[in-house]
Amino acid sequence: MTVAGIISAIIVGLVIGALGRLVVPGRQDLPVWLTIVVGIVAALIGTALAQAVGVAVTPGVDWIELVFQIGLAALGVALLSGVRGRRSV
């Protein structure tokens, strides 16, 4: 992986993680770096899932792939927020 690939993964992770965080209702006590990690993982898994379903490459914007990625990021944020919330009590 090149430096440009790493930087683009961080940027995509930041955007996907932020969108996933916006979808989850309530307040999440997650640090920014953890949101980025959740976003990167969700982007990778969402892309793999879209490829498995056969909707990864479409003309224009890959809306279905983005929905997969944001949904997985929201799930990851919700799970980690719940785990971190219970652990600090």
Q: Could you walk me through the main structural features you see in this protein, from its secondary elements to its overall organization?
A:
The protein has a domain at about 30-89. It has 3 helices and no strands. It is mainly alpha-helical and about 90 residues long.
List the helices and strands and how they pair.
Elements: H1 3-23, H2 32-53, H3 63-87
Helix pairs in contact: 1-2, 1-3, 2-3
What gap, in angstroms, lies between the N and C termini? 40 Å
Shape, principal axes of CA atoms: globular
- Strand count: 0
Radius of gyration over C-alpha positions, nearest whole angstrom = 14 Å
Average pLDDT for all residues: 82
Question: What's the story with the biggest beta sheet?
Answer: none
Low-confidence stretches: none
Helix tally equals 3
SSE order? HHH
Strand content: under 5%
What is the helical fraction, as a range of percent? over 70%
What structural class should be given to the helix and strand makeup?
A: mainly alpha
Question: Can you give me a brief rundown of this structure?
Answer:
This protein is mainly α and 89 residues long. The chain has helices spanning 3-23, 32-53, 63-87.
Q: Could you name the key traits of this structure?
A:
89 residues; mainly alpha; 3 helices; 76% helix; globular
